[in-house]
Amino acid sequence: MAYDGVTLYHLIREFKDLLVGGRIRKIYQPETDEIRMLVNVGNQKYHVLLSANASNPRAYITEKIKENPSAAPSFCMVLRKYILNGTIVDIDQHETDRILELSISSKNEFNDTVVRKLLVEIMGRNSNIILVDESQRILDSMKKVGTTSSRYRQILPGRDYIYPPENNRLNFFQVDEDSFNEILLLNQEATVEKTCVQAFLGISPAIAREIAFRNGINSNSLISELSKKQKQYLYESFNQVVNAIREKACPNIIYLNRKMVDFSTISLHHLREAHRIEVYSSVSEMLEDYYFKRDKAIRFKTRSANLRHQLDTLLKKNVKKLKNLQSDVETSHKNEKYKLYGDLITANIYAIEKGQETVTLANYYDPAYQTIDVPLKVNRTPAQNAQSYYKKYNKSKIALQYLEGYISETKEKIYYLESLLNGLEQSTELNELDEIRHEFLHSEFNKKALSKEDRKKQVLSKPLHYLSSEGFHIFVGKNNYQNDYVSTKMGKDEDCWLHVKDAPGSHVLIVANGRFITEKTVLEAGVLAAWYSKSKHSSNVPVDYLEFKYLKKPSKAKPGMVIFTNQNTMYVTPTQDAVDAMEVVIDND
């Protein structure tokens, strides 16, 4: 979700309660587009983050401290000159737009008290942080905007500050029914969502969809398609949402299938059914958690991209190799006819003359005794032709023996590479990614020399920990190292071990703990085994299950590779709902 005017409205109310009257004791700039301020309010200290990052512009009180660079950038020095040790006297929002205004009382060069403003424009790639004096003249800005970038609005020291263009958008707190209907009249060919976003300052697409949802209509419906009654109800749902904004903030992060997809400071009814909502006690806490997790996800994706590419390339190479080997096997089986040709020529050697291109012979191996045409080399005797066919047959027979070994070896490589990719798919933490990378670097596929850091023993991450509906603890390995730990270190003889049949996937362990493991719990664990495998999107997935005592890891086997006996097989259809319904246990030790 965009950091919209609604989020900023609720953040400013929080800022007013906490920061007004506070003194700015420290200012530093850890990033080129980020300012941090330490504000003292009585005995309390607050670290205020202000960012003009093009991808993640934001403002909130943070608990995570960054290192102060040794040399302060010029903009940071200007802020220290004009507002360091100043007192925050007011915090406001321009209309309902995404502009945060911090009014700071400090002394000028004549020791007179003046109020300067630090303006934070949270507007995507146009985001900026600007310091203006008491007459709205720009003292400095984080990003300079000259005439080549904007004819309407230059952001340069000495220029008068001009607010960003509003494009006829209205403060949604000041909209009555007549002006709302006038907006609908002017946007007949636009959708409900687009109309709300373009007509009102600070309304994001998510809030626009909420307005449509509370009216019971599709946000992609054209205004011209709405009946008079629906338009009337649309204003009522708009009013409902505006009133919800006026009320106390309800900061929350929205998840879908364990993936963070959005945040909001009001309750979004249209996301309640299919999504999981995590509620926070403050807007700043929500924003910090959201951007921290988002940054971690981006860093994870970036760091995993190269490894994923390497694994994909190796997998495609081995799949192609397997296909070629299987094609060679088919060719070798077809070469069985050469033995037949040799036998028939030998049996009829005195009836064949040198120089013939072909000979028609009765196939005495055929119950119907049908004839067969046998090609011959004209420059060879019948005996030489027979020997040539026997030689081709023997060559194919020997090749077939080697091919079977190559095929088995290539299949093992494919399975192992798929297990690494499956681990990569299941991983969510950077330390889990490091485990997979460490395993790959120590595998036969890595041809590069290991660095000193890579040779270090890996600190193992923890497997997933679930609690079944009947209270049994279930552990799920997310990569081969975790699978090894689950399958060699955790289990006891009476425990139950599960794995999807004939496909890469997680090792799953049900801990009996002196209890009889029920069929219901085994089925729940089977769903987990299928879900955390290559077959997660299939139906009727076969899952093997057995007592832990029948499980064994061969000596020198690759990580995650085990053998077992005495298994039974069940069939399950894994779904996200079934997995989400299971309780997750957070292990802090």
UniProtKB/TrEMBL annotation:
One Pfam family per UniProt: NFACT_N
Keywords: Protein biosynthesis, RNA-binding, rRNA-binding, tRNA-binding
Stored SUPFAM superfamilies: S13-like H2TH domain
Domain of life per record: Bacteria
TM annotation in the entry: none
Domain NFACT RNA-binding: 463-564
Keyword Hydrolase: no
InterPro entries given in the database record: NFACT_RNA-bd, Ribosomal_uS13-like_H2TH, RQC_Subunit_NEMF, RqcH_bacterial
Family as reported in the entry's similarity comment: Belongs to the NEMF family.
Task of the protein: Key component of the ribosome quality control system (RQC), a ribosome-associated complex that mediates the extraction of incompletely synthesized nascent chains from stalled ribosomes and their subsequent degradation. RqcH recruits Ala-charged tRNA, and with RqcP directs the elongation of stalled nascent chains on 50S ribosomal subunits, leading to non-templated C-terminal alanine extensions (Ala tail). The Ala tail promotes nascent chain degradation. May add between 1 and at least 8 Ala residues. Binds to stalled 50S ribosomal subunits.
Complex and partners: Associates with stalled 50S ribosomal subunits. Binds to RqcP.
Record protein name field: Rqc2 homolog RqcH
Natural source organism: Acetobacterium fimetarium
